[in-house]
Amino acid sequence: MKNLISSLLALVKKFSWQRNLFIFFTLTLFSSIFTPHLKAEKKKTEAQTVKIDLYTNVKYIDKDEQNEDFTEQIKDCVNIRSEIRLKSAFLDAFYATDIYSNTFDKNSFGFSVHTNGTVCNLLPLKLKLMAGNINYKSSITQLSNPVLKHHSALAKFYNNSSGISPSFQGFSYNKKPLSVCLSIENITPIGGSFFTQNSKPGPCAYLPSIQFAYTEDKNIFASMYKTFIIQNLSTINIGLTGGLFQHGKDFNCNYWFTKTRPYIKKDYAACCAEFSFTSTHYKNNTKGFIYQNPFGSFNLCTQINNGFSFKHFVFNTSLFLSDKDTITSSGSMLAPYMQVNINPQYKTKIAFMNLQIGLFAQEDWCRNKNNNLDYNKYFCSLSSCISNKKHRFSSSFSTSYNDYSKEFVPSVYSSYIYNTKNFSMGFSANAKFYDTKNIFTLKENLNIHKNVFYTINVKETFTQNKEKDLDVKLATGFSFRYKTHFININGSFYAQFEF
Question: Does 493 have pLDDT greater than 60?
Fold first, then answer.
């Protein structure tokens, strides 16, 4: 089965981008012919219509290198990318390509065939088959990097969704590898859960949702998860994700003098089991990871997240534990083997204003993969926010310290947002002070919400080194979105200059 899918992906990869473009625009032509017919029939629902999204992005980056040939210089600085997407009741497709660029290998495409409801009006299952450049998140991302990350002191309790969450890659320049994915989602209604006393469970109440994927990188993985409802007040989610991931390097004499020990490139197993519980005053998310070590045996990791809330107070805490020298599914070795963080918050209302105050503190116990020395990292952030329906002002002060490099980095951040029904604008300022340099960043954005949605962003970055030399970077962006019943037109322009 694995060899068959690998052969199909290799065959698709051999197709020229001109052929893919012809196939995609054939679908576009078919949809444009079919759309007026659906519009004429008033009995058709909106779910049965065909929608078309058009994207165009122009990107210019000013570079210091000056080529003798002006044409080559423009190619190095300018990138024009276009994308078209089709959305219908049973078929979604997209095609993106670089129209003008110094590289012409960033053509991406994909399609999905799915059912919006029951299968043959019998089983409450939603089937989806996807192929092309697909992006995977949720549990599959956690497998590649299970460590805790810093977040805002005012952030809500983050409960990762189970599964691999397949989706077409966004309108970006980061091309995802080709892959094939099959999803079987159980859409049993809340009343069908066997924890609910109001109704008896149906025959499909016990069926989990299943997802399976295979990529051109020869990675094969699957996920299975199920959500239960308890008296319509609490939810329990159980998930299991695992697969075979290929990483490592081919041996040669160049690796004899490396500080990290090389290992042969082949398939290595990795698995993640997840349990989450959500109620009114308590939330929990627990994950367990198992990684096959290239040098023998298995490595274990666990991540535990807890959230408590009572009236105006919120307290979140997380713990991460891992075996030393753990190598994840992406082939990277984990530096932290223990992490602990706390996040108390206080929320109240004063007159017509909402007040939030939060503290986030985290300590990491790490091991240097080059010399196997242990060291600690510390991070602390204090944030506050005052807001109402139209105004929002927030500020924060954070510090970080690395016991290995002896680097102490304080930073200050403040922002203001004004928001109405058809208009919003925002300003923010950030300053970071390193041992060797200082970085100051200013951002301004303007949004106009009318028939056409306009967005203007400006970012100024000032970098000052020890010699008091000042480097200035100016980045500006403009985007618009025009939306109709069937066609969405999106455009953006981005430019970056250095002084």
Answer: yes
pTM as predicted: 0.82
8 with 180: CB under 8 angstroms? yes
Q: What is the 3-state secondary structure (H, E, C) of the chain?
A: CHHHHHHHHHHHHHCCHHHHHHHHHHHHHHHHHHHHHHHHCCCCCHHHCCEEEEEEEEEEECCCCCCCCHHHHHHHHEEEEEEEEEECCCEEEEEEEEEECCCCCCCEEEEEEECCCCECCCECEEEEEEEEEEECCCHHHHHHCCCCCCCCCCCCCCCCCCCCCCEECCCCCCCCCEEEEEEEEECCCHHHCCCCCCCCCCCCCCCCEEEEEEECCCCEEEEEEEEEEECCCEEEEEEEEEEEEEECCCCCHHHHHCCCCCCCCEEEEEEEEEEEEECCCEEEEEEEEEEECCCCCEEEEEEEEEEEEECCEEEEEEEEEECCCCECCCCCECCEEEEEEEEEEEEEEECCEEEEEEEEEEEEEEECCCCCCEEEEEEEEEEEEEECCCEEEEEEEEEEEECCCCEEEEEEEEEEEEECCCEEEEEEEEEEECCCEEEEEEEEEEEEECCEEEEEEEEEEEEEECCCCEEEEEEEEEEEEEECCCEEEEEEEEEEEEC
Average pLDDT value for residue range 324-332: 89
Q: Please state, in angstroms and as integers, the Cα–Cα distance from residue 298 to each residue in 6, 130, 477, following that order.
A: 28, 32, 48
Question: Which residue from 114, 109, 137, 123 is spatially nearest to 20, judged by alpha carbons?
Answer: 109
pLDDT digits (tens, 9 = 90+) for 354-377: 999 999 999 999 998 888 889 999
Buried b (16+ CB within 10 A) or exposed e, 445-478: bebeeeeeeebebebebebeeeeeeeeeeebbbb
